[in-house]
Amino acid sequence: MEMILVMHNIRSCYNVGAIFRTAEGFGVSRVILSGYTPRIDDANLLPHLREKLNKEIHKTALGAEKMLDIYSCGDIFTEVKELHKQGWQVVGLENNIEDVPLYKLNDLGLKDKIGDKVILILGEEVDGIDYSLYDMIDLFVEIPMKGQKESFNVSVAAGIAMYGIMNL
Q: Phi/psi at 13 (nearest 5 deg)?
């Protein structure tokens, strides 16, 4: 299986770094950063702010940010639509949504629904994937929860989802 990871509107540099490290460990093909997700070496920032973000991302990425194919995207809609035309299936990681079918990662039928080329979209830490992206998503998956909390930290959830999808 080949996977591209989209991080859209992730707020925390530490989450971004942790996701980079996990994505590298799972052999993710490319990471696309969009929205206000912090970027490495962001030329749009003043040098002292750029250095601060680089340090924070590196603290949890531990060098993975230099090993991945990381792409910063200004128009995520066009980018994902183009990849979809090339045969990539778009999967959104969400929880507790009602208006669309939502498959648990441990659903036995999920293996038949997931293709060999997956774009996994992660959304903002609290509010999840921006609703404006929903129309582009072919399939939504969620991590089954057994405790009282409703969700995991986005970096933890990303790792669980990458592992779960890649090992269907």
A: -60, -35
Q: Which amino acid is at 117?
A: K
* C-beta of residue 10 within 8 angstroms of C-beta of residue 37: yes
Report whether 65 contacts 57 (CB < 8 A). Answer: yes
Q: Which residues partner with 3 through β-bridges?
A: 118
Give the pLDDT confidence score for residue 97 in this predicted structure. 86
Helix (H, G, I), strand (E, B) or coil at 32: strand
Per-residue pLDDT of 96-152, as tens digits, reads: 788 888 999 999 999 999 999 999 999 999 999 999 999 999 999 999 999 999 899
Whole-structure pTM value = 0.96
Structure tokens at 148: 């009282």
Q: Which residue, 38, 133, 22, 55, is CA-closest to 5? A: 22
Confidence (pLDDT) at 101 = 87
CA 48 to centroid of chain Cα atoms:
27
pLDDT in tens, 80-106: 999 999 999 999 999 978 888 899 999
Residues 6+ positions from 26 with CB-CB distance below 8 Å: 3, 159, 162, 163, 166
Domains observed in the chain: 2-166 (3.40.1280.10)
Has residue 48 got a pLDDT over 90? yes
